[in-house]
């Protein structure tokens, strides 16, 4: 372009500087910046922002600050993005006092902090042990209509845990979940570890239940749960039936059935009396893992432990058998349920009728629909919708 006699404008230079910065060629970008000055094509705010940001990412904060000084000396306007890059860069190098000084300078120049600035500030304050100031900053962030993200929450929760304010940390976690802000394993792990060290295992169990509810076991459940369980076994208080139940549920949902079965055997040997909830959790997990023979065998052992299946247990095994296409066995269990005095509710009818319809066994589905017709008009409507669908659409294929 230059050889052809065309002089690049500021926009062209800026595009090139941005591309070089993205590909990690920061030194080349700086050389290009110097070339702009030599060619009387003065860099603008955007050009400087790009290079300052790239230098900070490369931890070349001294060079970034020099460039920042040049920028101001030339009368080029600075903005919140420039300050954020420098403040963040200084924080990563542990130069938090310089970062705070730069933040104060920014405010003096009437440049309003944005969400990112507040997040950096909260992190700095927490790491400096100034947790009450961090909490106040967090409140200001909310008051300004800015929405904190998981990083902001993590910084403050970490600071509260370090300063022994676990109640405030727990309240903040509940606030975070209530706002539907995606959390990560760090958020929970920090608080669980703090609670366990203080012997507040029941509170740690609350956190784990929240993890289960929002599906976080998929990325961090096994390690955290096992650490908690091991900690309890070694240092107390000893795990109770609720602890075992939570751990078993997490392992089953994770699909770690071998470990779930090992835990179940440990529970059988313990002093705890196993209940229907424990059996239902494991039977459901076995069916979902395709281990339906193990699930059936476990179901058959209920009476040995003096237990009688309830609605939830029957519903779980009927649903599992129907999904495996074992309709005769499902119907047998359904009949045993009625004969044993545990009259099927509408949910149990719904499960088995849909099972028959999915496998195009319309006669038996019709028979069951007749049974429920008088008892539950709402469920009847739902079942008739299924019946209509399979009789008019699915059967035709």
TrEMBL record:
Key word Cytoplasm present: no
Signal peptide start-end: none
PPR repeat coordinates: 9-43, 44-78, 79-113, 114-148, 149-183, 184-218, 240-274, 275-309, 310-344
SUPFAM superfamilies from the UniProt entry: HCP-like
Keywords: Repeat
Highest taxon of source: Eukaryota
Record bears the keyword Repeat: yes
Protein name per its UniProtKB record: Pentacotripeptide-repeat region of PRORP domain-containing protein
């Amino acid at each position: 372009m230059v050889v052809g006699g065309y002089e690049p404008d500021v926009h062209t230079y800026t595009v090139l500087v941005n591309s070089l910065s993205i590909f990690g060629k920061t030194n080349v970008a700086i050389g290009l910046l110097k070339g702009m000055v030599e060619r009387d094509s003065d860099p603008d705010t955007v050009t400087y922002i790009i290079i300052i940001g790239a230098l900070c990412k490369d931890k070349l904060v001294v060079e970034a600050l020099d460039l920042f000084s040049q920028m101001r000396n030339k009368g080029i306007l600075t903005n919140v993005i420039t300050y954020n890059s420098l403040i963040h860069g200084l924080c990563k190098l542990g130069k938090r006092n310089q970062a705070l000084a730069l933040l104060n300078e920014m405010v003096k120049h009437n440049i309003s902090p944005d969400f990112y600035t507040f997040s950096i500030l909260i992190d700095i304050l927490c790491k400096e042990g100034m947790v009450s100031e961090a909490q106040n900053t967090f409140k200001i962030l909310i008051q300004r209509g800015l929405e904190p993200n998981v990083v902001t929450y993590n910084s403050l929760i970490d600071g509260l845990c370090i300063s022994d304010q676990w109640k405030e940390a727990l309240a903040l976690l509940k606030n975070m979940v209530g706002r539907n802000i995606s959390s990560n394993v760090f958020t929970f792990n920090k608080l669980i570890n703090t609670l366990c060290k203080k012997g507040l295992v029941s509170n740690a169990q609350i956190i784990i239940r929240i993890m289960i509810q929002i599906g976080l076991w998929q990325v961090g459940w096994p390690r955290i749960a096992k650490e908690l369980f091991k900690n309890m076994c070694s240092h107390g208080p000893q795990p109770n039936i609720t602890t075992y139940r939570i751990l078993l549920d997490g392992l089953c949902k994770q699909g770690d059935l071998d470990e779930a079965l090992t835990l179940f055997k440990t529970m059988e040997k313990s002093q705890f009396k196993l209940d229907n909830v424990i059996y239902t959790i494991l039977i459901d997990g076995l069916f979902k893992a395709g281990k339906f023979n193990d699930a059936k065998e476990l179901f058959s052992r209920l009476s040995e432990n003096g237990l009688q299946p309830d609605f939830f247990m029957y519903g779980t095994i009927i649903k599992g058998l129907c999904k495996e296409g074992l309709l005769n066995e499902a119907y047998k269990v359904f009949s045993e349920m009625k004969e044993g005095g545990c009259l099927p509710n509408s949910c149990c009818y719904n499960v088995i009728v849909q099972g028959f319809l999915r496998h195009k066994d319309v006669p038996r589905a019709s028979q069951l629909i007749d049974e429920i017709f008088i008892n539950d008009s709402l469920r009847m409507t739902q079942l008739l919708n299924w019946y209509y669908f399979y009789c008019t659409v699915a059967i035709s294929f």
